[in-house]
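dude i think i finally got it to work??
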Amino acid sequence: MLAAMSIVGGDDRVSAAYNNVEETLRLLCKKTEMSFPPKRIYLRAFKRDAVLEVWAASSGTGRMRLLKSYPIAAMSGSLGPKRKEGDYQVPEGFYHIERFNPRSQFHLSLGINYPNASDRILSDQEHPGSDIFIHGDRKSIGCMAMTDPVIEEIYVLADLAKKAGQKNIPVHIYPFRFNEEWALAPPSTLSLWKSMRPIYDAFEKNRQVPRFRVLNDGRYQILTKS
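look at this
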């Protein structure tokens, strides 16, 4: 959450990040048989594994391919969604990048739109928390902290996708991969996780980020083509 605090020099920091990682990303895309820069990216995190995956596509409609899996260096809290300011939890649910912060106290940061529509229903109505980021510097209070070299790669990929015309970069945060055992979850969490499962399964099958809506009780519902 502290990533919202800023210092000067952001433009220089982004330029330096491009210099540091652009050739690496170019070779990574070539290895994955992906155009550079990718036209779309999708971020998918698993809290139990402490992994953030970057998926990408060379076109606006094609199937996505796994570009790279990055270790999450630090992440506070435990399994289960964020529900209140100060609970130190990393959110769980379906988000998107809503802001780029090149002047972050934690090197570079990408802010996600927590609280989303589901969180606004299920979380504390007055103090749900805010300022959730993917950032550098290995320190986390409810955020997903990466090493500085890793956040440079993720930040540049997101910036390139934005420049290529991607208006919405989805960030899906799961407790774990849903092929694992999770029947012992608390009832409130289990209900949310069950509603997330179809979105997870659809992407596993089609490699396309599914559309969804939020129901009146805060659960997610996948939208399928008629």
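Residues 85 and 129 are 4 Å apart (CA to CA).
im so relieved honestly
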